[in-house]
């Protein structure tokens, strides 16, 4: 099994992605050795976390501050790409990966 030395995700500059948007870009892997099985499996995991403070009872004689938070997994997809030949150029990643 080949170990990954570095991984780079290349997306268009100044792009803004909303929930449910498709991404199109490149995944560039630098490996420590040659691939034995010429297949690369890419796994995409999208998670979100938010935290905020709320004040309860501010209009009364008493109040207290409450810390609220929420987290969610938005996407978890896996796609396998066959590596053909000995090309050294980046392999594009299509939408929805």
TrEMBL record:
SUPFAM superfamilies: E set domains (SSF81296). The lineage of its organism: Eukaryota, Metazoa, Chordata, Craniata, Vertebrata. Gene3D superfamilies: 2.60.40.640. InterPro entries: Arrestin-like_C, Arrestin-like_N, Ig_E-set. This is Arrestin-like N-terminal domain-containing protein. Belongs to the arrestin family. It comes from Marmota monax. Residues 13-81 form the Arrestin-like N-terminal domain.
